[in-house]
Every structure is written in C-alpha cells, then in structure tokens.
Amino acid sequence: MNGLQISYFEASARKRLSELVDAGSLVEFCPPEMRQTSPHLAMLDAPLAFDDGVVTGRASLSGHKVLIAAQEGRFNGGAVGEVHGAKIRGLLDRALSERPAAVLLLIDSGGVRLHEANAGLIAISEIMRAVLRVQAAGIPVFALVGGSCGAFGGMGIVTRLCTEVVMSEQGRLGLSGPEVIETVKGVEEFDSRDRALVWRITGGKLRRALGEATLLVDDLIPAFRTAAAKLIERYRAHPPVPADLDELLGAQAELTERSVRFAAARDGREIWQADFAEASRVPEMTVAEFNALLGEAA
Amino acid sequence: MEQFSLTLPSDALPQNIASATLCGVVSSGNLEILVEPAAASDACRIVVNTSAHGFRDIWEAVLKDFARRHSVGGLSLSINDAGATPAVVSLRLDQAFETCRGELA
Q: Where is the CoA carboxyltransferase N-terminal domain (chain A) (predicted)?
C-alpha cells in the first residue's frame, strides 16, 4: 500500500476484506464468477449483484487460518436475502469441519432483505443458530461493525450472539433502526435526521460504554486488523466456553437492572454520565482517550 | 431490467488476466463489472443488465468508446447496473480494465 490511512467506513466490502487479511491469502467461496444471484430479486426485476452482496472465504490473519464474511452495505443496505444468508450460514457450518482459529463476520447490514420476506427471515435465523453452534464447538466468532449501514435488525441480534464485538465510533448497533422507530413511534420518539443524536444512541462509543461492543477501535482497516489479531491470540489460549445457566441468569439480572437504572434516559449523554466525569465531551474524545477513561489499555 | 449483449471488435489484450475480477458495487447510480477471459481474442463480449430502460444507444456509444481506447480483445465483461450515468460507466470500465491487468489493488 501507499501508506494512506484507509477508512473502514468508506471502503467497500471487498476492500475491507483484502486489507484485513494477510495479502493474497483470501480464497473466496461462491465467488462472483459463479453468479449465485438472488432468484427473488430477479423475479421482482430488481438489479442483481454477482455475489449477492456478501463476500465469503478462507484466509489467514497474522498467520492464523480464519473463515471470513464481509457484507456489502451499499448493495440493498447489506440486507440478508436467501442466497446472501446461505453463504454466511454455509461459512459458519464449514467452520465446524475446518476448525479455523476464528470466524470473522464483517457486518454492514440493515437486517432482513424485505424483498425476500420469509426466505430472508429464515436465513437470519439459520445464521443465529450457526453462530451458536460454532461457539459451542470452541471456535470464537468475532463481529466487526464499522460500515455505513451498521448492524441492525436480525444482523444486530447476530452481532450480539458473537463471542466479541469490535466497533468503530462510526459503526452503529441496534435492533430497530432510527428511521423505523421514527416511522412507527413518531419524530418525538426518535428524530432519525438528527445524526448526532443517532450516533450518540446507536454508535460505537455508547455501545462500548454499555459493554455491547467489547472493543472500540479507530475507523481504520489496520485498527480492525490489529484488534482481530489480538482477539485470535487471546482465544487460541482460551477457547470460548458456552455460558451456563447461572451466567445467563446473571446477565439477565444485569440487563434488568440496567433497564431500570436508565429508564428515563433519552440520550447517550445521560448514560455516559455514569462512566465519565465530562459526559458532554465524550463525542469529541479520540478513541484512545475514550478507552483510557474506560480503564482499558489501548 | 433491460438486458442486451454486444460483441465489439478490439485489438487483442497482449497479456493473460485473472480468471475473474470484480469492480464496483450495485448501488443507486453505480454498477459492477465482472471481467473474465473470453475465447475470441479479437473481440470484447459485453453483457449489460440495467435497471434503466431505453438507454441502449448511449450504452453502445460508451462501450464502443471503451473498446476503441483500450486493447480489450479476449475479454468478457458482465455488467450489473443500477442507473449509473455514462461518465460513471466509463470510469468504472477503465477501472475494471486496469484491475484485471493487476494494476490496482
């Protein structure tokens, strides 16, 4: 490369993938020349993509074998259709026999592709079950969230099912997206055009402060790469263990306590006040400063 | 969608290319181009699938200009288009040509 810093947010799925893994190591599954396109979009006479909006394959990252999927947020908002979903689910199933050091999901998606209705919903539910199966087999699954579509709807749930969630401040994570909430509940509930508000509520910094993202990194592909490499090393030493019932009940109790504690909160700022002396400064903090104040080594 | 294909005479590309190269993303006002080797070395075969109906004349003008400017004989181009303007198509074609020859990452 020419030394330019490459924004993860701005890059295409293929660019993110090629810069994230070891140079030249990617072997793509169901590559574009196989033309595994969406039969649903074809029936609707809508534009197709040769990879149906997701790149899947095997690669190495810092010398470790990984299986990896990258969603293209610019094709139909990264939404999961039948083929798109089958490629991700197939990748996860493959992890059970190939046993990579980790599965990396570069999520950039609004959720189910509405054109494909039930087929898209089923695809997402298959991905969820597969993510759990892979972790139960001792293989970590890392979600990387830093694209323009964030991780919403079913892919928001998939993200939270992963072993670790790496986000940038630009990344967003949620269930219903801001525009959906505004449409259903009105602009008084959530003004989806107030971008600062949208990011204070769904963006990486709040998700990290709440513990829903486990790492916050700069919006640079090498920053995501470094984080992924560190996680791979950590989980090689300590493979993921499925949570037992007591742990799940404990997590449920924490969530219940949180929902009571922040019941009146209308903005990320009110939640940051719990962690930061100067809550109003949080949006302008660098990632390093933010992580340091959270008590986390950069 | 409107689909058509054309075969344009062009000088043979004097080098081998990767078995497939994909450029661009199918999003509003944009397009993707898949470049693959074709059997005939003296022509470029192009399949266009576009959401914008009724612009075949303009497509042909842009594609003929591309085939005249570069030696693209022996290439097969498959295009998925979501309403890109002629200038965007032309730039994307040039990018695809450079990428398939390994000039860009």
A: 1-240
Mutation site for B-interface testing, chosen from A20, A33, A37 by largest number of B Cβ within 10 Å: A33
Instruction: Using CA coordinates, name the residue in chain A closest to B81.
Output: A47
Tell me: the pLDDT tens digits for A3-53? 678 999 999 999 999 999 999 999 999 999 999 999 999 999 999 999 999
Q: How far is A7 from chain B, CA to nearest CA, in Å?
A: 16
The encoded tokens of residue A123 equal 């695809």
**Beta bridge pairs of residue A57:** A28, A68
Do the Cβ atoms of A49 and B25 come within 8 Å? Answer: yes
Interface of B with A in 22-81 (CB under 8 A): 22, 25-27, 30, 32, 34, 36, 49, 51, 78, 80-81
Residue A63 gets which letter from DSSP? T
Enumerate the domain spans of chain B.
2-100
- Across the range B94-101, mean pLDDT stands at 96
pLDDT (mean) for B5-9: 97
Question: For residue B20, which residues of chain A lie inside 8 Å, CB to CB?
Answer: 31-33
CA distance A88 to A75: 16
CATH classification code of B2-100: 3.30.230
CB contact under 8 A, B80 and A18: no
Residue closest to A171 by CA, chosen among A88, A78, A265, A102: A78
Q: Architecture of domain A13-173+213-242 in CATH?
A: Alpha-Beta Complex (3.90)
The model's confidence at residue B104, banded by pLDDT at 50, 70 and 90, is low
Of A45, A72, A74, the CB nearest to B1: A45
pLDDT of residue A155: 98
Residue A63 — left, alpha, or beta (φ > 0 → left; ψ -120 to 50 → alpha)?
left
